[in-house]
Fold this sequence. Notes:
The protein contains 20 helices and 2 strands. Helix 1 (7-28) runs parallel beside helix 5 (75-93), helix 5 (75-93) packs antiparallel against helix 8 (171-191) and helix 6 (102-134) crosses helix 15 (349-381). It is 69% helix and 1% strand. By secondary structure, it is mainly α.
Amino acid sequence: MRFEFTRRQWLTVVVISIADFCNAICVALQAPFFPHEAELKGCSATEYGLVFGVFELVVFMISPFYGAHLNRLGPKLVFNAGILTTSSCAILFGFLDKVQGHIPFVTLAFTIRIIEAMGNAAFLTASFAIIAKEFPNNVATMFASLETFFGLGLIVGPMLGGALYSWGGYSLPFAVLGFALFCTAILCYVTLPKTSDDEDIKPTGPTMMSLLKIPGVLLAAISIISTSMSIGFLQATLEPHLRQFNFSPVILGLIFIINGGIYALSAPTWGWMCDHPSIKPKYVTALGHLFVTGAFLLVGPAPFIDMPTMLWVTIAGLVLHGLGIGSLLVSSFSDALGTAISSGLPNSIETYGLVSGMWTSTFALGAFIGPTVSGLLFDSIGFRSSTSFIVILHLCVMGVVLLFLCTCDRYKMEVSVSAGDLMQLDGTLDESVLIGDKFITPATRTKRLSYSSRRYGISVEQSRPPAMNSLIACSSFKNRRSPWSQRTPRYRPSYGSLDHRFRASLSVT
Length: 509
């Protein structure tokens, strides 16, 4: 697969990758030392645990809103506002050690964390949508690249934060890393393309409910939830499980970054596979569920495996888990976006925003449920027995994915083309929308090479623009009278603030 990007595209991916890396660092940097600081202020484990958990809960609740209104607000505006909010909250979080009293400390910690989550959700939703629009033919690959930088940030954040904390106290890591993210926010504002969005803003368009009513998209959402649940499960209970080995904090920290490191390194490969025309993303999804199932059979190991807990087996399980979450998170985004467009949603920033918001929201939901469920199971039946929950969950979802591939995913989009759809503005017949052996003569076939998309079963013309490859080709892109053209704006690689025509209509009314 060749990557021939424009200067605009390279600039976009470099800037967003830097922002993703710095954002992940600021989100994760407080994990090693905030609990200790909170205990000095009289907080219980439940209280500072909720400070971490409320972040994911807010992201889950607010992301669909950003996704639904991304076109109206403008992806660049949402992106810049989100990263600026996250950096400001990271700096403010560093002043909590100056707060006296238990109640004021907890109240401010919750308030700052909630606002930070709102900014982080805005940043992630907008960045995914921008990447989807700028790279319509390499969505999975570029999404995976962003996830690689985000994953590296999650690894570096706690390590760098802990080092700065040891050197200069509580406030230093937040001041240094928060200021770095703030500078990144300024860089993004200056360098991201400033072209205003020229897509129509319609009073009614696709909604989150219309997106989730598509079976393939709903299945992708379930895969995301189950994947983030497996991540949260290990984050909450792996350390108590490994206490039997009496590891030092350094060794324990290295073990914790195995699955995240494998995920970050393998994500581009999974992205390349999902973008390959001969590989359906749902095949990659099914493989990912298989990896996660195998991981949780080994990491315990499972109670029905007659062997004690051994370090090398646990590490092998974490490696499998890293491969599994990489394939699942990358393929689910690519699959949800492609399935939504092939099911009739417009190939526009509105759909990109909805899918981005859905991905961010469902991941946060799983990240909130996972630690909660794992803690309850760990206290009641122990780590080895509780891993059966994730094993059964992923086996069930994998079975549904395979069933969908065998039954529901073999259809071809049936779109009727009326005579009115074939008439051009000058009254002549637009034969370019007629695709298939029934409409193309032998002479025309030699001039116009057609092929069938093996991923979604949609016949498209080789000569059509790349961004049209996932559209229903028999609704003419060129025919302005067709229903498709009336409700779907042309693809344009631009994004910005509020549409000028929308603002003009507001001023008139």
